[in-house]
Structure formats: C-alpha cells, structure tokens
Design a protein that fits this description.
The protein has 469 residues and is of the alpha+beta class. The protein is 33% helix and 18% strand. It has 13 helices and 19 strands. A hairpin with an 8-residue loop joins strand 1 and strand 2. Helix 2 packs antiparallel against helix 4, helix 4 packs across helix 13 and helix 11 crosses helix 13.
Length: 469
C-alpha cells in the first residue's frame, strides 16, 4: 500500500506541474485576471458575481464538489462554499481564497503591461490578482484537480470558501462564518495568501498580525490665514500635529505607548524566527536596521512586534500653494500588532498619551475601516510539523516557519471563531507588488506551489500521516 501511495504522490505532483507546462494554468489565470473584480470600485460589483458564477462555481462542480452561494448584506459580493465530502470518517480540510482585487491603477503600469490582461515577461506573469489572490488559489485548485485525476478521489473531505471582499476588509465574512459555523466544521484550516519569507524560500505561516487604522486631526480654525499677516501669532496645526505624533513614536520608529506593543516575545516564537531571514531581492529596498524597536532582529520586528506608521498626511495644499497658515492638519496612521496587544485598549491609550504630553487639541478618531485581530498557531502544533514535513519531502528542503505573517488577514475568524489550527502556504513573495502597479507572480513559484500542494494533498489523503484529532 505504501508503494502505491508513494507512486500516486509522485504522479499527482507530475500531473499538477503538467498543468503549468502545457499552458493550462496560464490560460486559466488569463481568464480569471481579465475579470476586473475590484471590490472597492462600485462599478465592478457585477464582476464579483461573475467571478463566482462563471468561473469558480462551474470549476468546483466539474471536480465533484457541491456548491452554494452565501450572501451577507455587509459584504460587497458573494461567498462560494464548495464541498466534497468523501467519507464522514475522513479528515476534513477547510480552505480559503479571495477572488476580489484592489483597483487596477491602469495608468501606473509599465509600458506594455495592463492590470486586467496577463502578460508574461522575464519569467513572471503580470496582472492584477496574479499574486493576490487569483494565482494563489489557482495553484491550490489545480493541485486538487491533479490528485483527482491520478487517484480518482482525495482521501479526505474538502471544503473551499471563496470570498469576494477581502480587499474591502472582509466585511461580512465573520457573519457568514457565524451563520454557517456547522457547515464550516473541519479539522484544520489551510489557505494560501500573502508572500513567502523570500523569493527562494518556501514558507508556511501560522497566523497574522492584526491591523488597525485611525485618524489624528487638529482643527485650529475655520479658514486659511495669510502667513505675512498672521505668521508668528497663529498656531500651525501641521507643526503641532508632527510634534504630537512624536508622543506616540520616536524618530527611529520605536513605539512609546506600551498598550500598542505586546511587551514581550514568547520563547518558541523567538526560536522559530531564528531559522528565518528576511532577504530582499532585486528591486526591494534594503532593510534599515536602525528603524524600529531596539534590540530586536528584523524578523522579530516584522513578525513578532508592533509597527506604527503614518499612511497619509494632509496640511495645506501642495498642488496649489496659498502661502497661508492652514486651518487644519490630518494624518491617517496604522498600527500592525501581534498576539499580545488588545486593540480595544489602543485608542484610549493614544488619547491618554497625547493628553499627558500636552496635545489636548489632537482629535483621535475611532477607526472606520475594519480592524483585523492578531492570531497565531503554536509553532510546535502537530499540524505544523505534518505540513512542514510534507513540503520538505516534496522539495528536499524545509520551509521557513513564520509564527505569523507581518501583514493582516482575517485569520482570527478561522482560528478563534471556528476554533481551527490555521496554516497558510503562500505562493508569492515580498516583491510581487500586490496592491501596486505591475503586480506579478514568478512562474517558478507557481510551479513549486503546484508541486507543494499536490504532495500535501496526497499526504492528507494518507490517514496514517494526518495528525490525530
């Protein structure tokens, strides 16, 4: 039996990679990218439905899945739940992906490239969604198809949830998971999003930093005032706001408000991060070691500590200078935070810190965007060991194991609400330019991802290898 399983594992990997070599993968990706499913663009809302009803639903049904469209009034688009239950006694996997994208930014792409047309260049596929997230769930779904072609069955139960509003903050996802909690029951959650640690380093991560954005504002008066008449006797809200921000973070990026940081890093998280190294590739900025929390490695700063940044700042009008003292200044700031930070305590703590520093005029507005909560699976969990061993068996080298992604994902909905061990296997890399012009997916990562997932699915079908419940 072990010989048969080993042979079918190799055959499934060969079949999966064959989809790329034959051009089937690229043809599928081109079709998916051509649907401009930008969830924050009102005119593209019909495309969110098109992606589900014209692409995802027929594909899953062809692979023997039963499908249901789920809706929630908060969400910009539909959800698709595809289920293939082969045996109630089998291990059940819940997977996830999102088919929505950010705006195309058409005019910012390099000559010859366009956001909603896939272009192959220099060993990469360019197009909006190639990396985030259409290319990533294309890898997973084609690896599923490969295993079915070889074995005729998976050997485990699979539920696949596709949402169309992740780029809008996953509004409605939690509510859908509450209503359909029983339908989403599983033994483990496995998904693909975000980047690898580095281009050449296969990676798994076990959760995500939380993320919250809020605004700081000073409104000193109603109108602009001529700087020659009033300069020196009227306060400048831009200057005042800049100084106020230094009550929260110093000039080297060290956060001053204790409630905004975890306070300490768990020992096993530090241990896991010793095996990880941030390696910028060509075109990436160099790591600036002097920035951020003193005494931490770059990896600890990104994956185990908080970061606080100004995202946008407004004061006056740079495009049309008025040579007048502006009446107001505003900044939108962002906090990324790991497990150990209570997001409910952040805004009150910021208000206290500003008040104690003498900046009572600064208004700290409550967040209007969705707040992602931090989550993290224990790096020593049996499912982590199983998935890491499967990837090493396929590639001949172990993956990096990140306790959590530096960015934010709705992982806490699956880990906390549904109570699942969560493992992410990204098929992208830090320089993919997701959310920017010229987004792309390296073809070698897609090829490696197909092999990784076909091998993993084969191992999941081998009950002797799956961790005990």
């Amino acid at each position: 039996m072990s010989v048969t399983l080993s042979a079918s594992r190799d055959a499934a990997i060969e079949e999966a990679v064959g989809f790329l070599l034959s051009g089937v993968f690229e043809e599928t990706l081109r079709r998916w990218v051509a649907i401009p499913s930008a969830s924050r663009v009102a005119a593209n809302r019909p495309d969110l439905w098109r992606y589900i009803t014209e692409e995802m639903q027929p594909l899953f049904e062809r692979l023997g899945f039963k499908t249901r469209i789920l809706e929630n009034e908060l969400a910009p688009g539909p959800f698709l739940l595809a289920e293939r239950i082969e045996d109630p006694g089998f291990t059940t996997i819940l997977q996830y992906g999102h088919g929505d994208v950010v705006a195309g930014l058409d005019e910012q792409w390099h000559e010859g490239l366009s956001p909603f047309a896939t272009t192959e260049k220099d060993g990469r596929w360019y197009g909006r969604g190639t990396a985030d997230n259409k290319g990533q769930h294309a890898v997973n779904i084609m690896a599923i198809e490969a295993l079915l072609a070889v074995r005729g069955s998976l050997g485990f139960n699979l539920k696949y949830l596709i949402e169309m509003g992740e780029e809008s903050g996953s509004l409605g996802l939690e509510e859908v998971c509450v209503v359909h909690r029983e339908d989403l029951k599983a033994d483990v959650f496995i998904a693909s999003d975000g980047p690898r640690l580095a281009l050449e380093r296969p990676t798994i991560f076990l959760g995500a930093r939380g993320g919250m954005s809020f605004e700081l504002e000073i409104e000193a008066r109603e109108n602009f005032q001529h700087s020659g008449n009033w300069g020196g006797i009227l306060s400048n809200p831009g200057i005042e706001l800049c100084h106020a921000i230094t009550a929260l973070v110093d000039r080297a990026g060290r956060i001053k408000v204790p409630e905004m940081t975890p306070g300490r890093i768990p020992d096993n998280v530090r241990t896991a991060l010793k095996e990880c190294k941030i390696v910028p590739t060509a075109g990436d900025p160099a790591v600036e070691e002097w920035w951020g929390e003193p005494g931490l490695t770059p990896e600890e700063k990104v994956f185990a500590w908080s970061s606080f940044d100004i995202m946008e700042m407004e004061c006056g009008n740079l495009a049309q200078p008025l040579y007048a003292i502006p009446p107001r200044a505003r900044a939108r700031v962002q906090l990324r935070f790991p497990v150990g930070v209570d997001p409910k305590a952040v805004i009150p703590a910021v208000r206290v810190a500003l008040r104690d520093a003498g900046f009572e005029r600064v208004k700290v507005k409550d967040p209007t965007d969705a707040t992602f909560l931090a989550s993290r699976l224990d790096p020593d969990h049996p499912w982590v060991r199983m998935v890491a061993a499967s990837i090493e068996k396929t590639l001949g080298r172990p993956p990096a194991i990140l306790p959590n992604l530096g960015g934010s994902l709705p992982n806490n909905i699956f880990s906390d609400l549904l109570g699942l061990p969560t493992i992410w296997i990204p098929h992208s890399y830090p320089g993919c330019l997701q959310h920017a012009a010229n987004e792309h997916l390296p073809i070698n990562i897609a090829r490696e991802g197909l092999a990784i997932m076909a091998g993993l699915y084969s191992d999941l079908g081998n009950k002797a290898l799956a961790p005990a419940d």
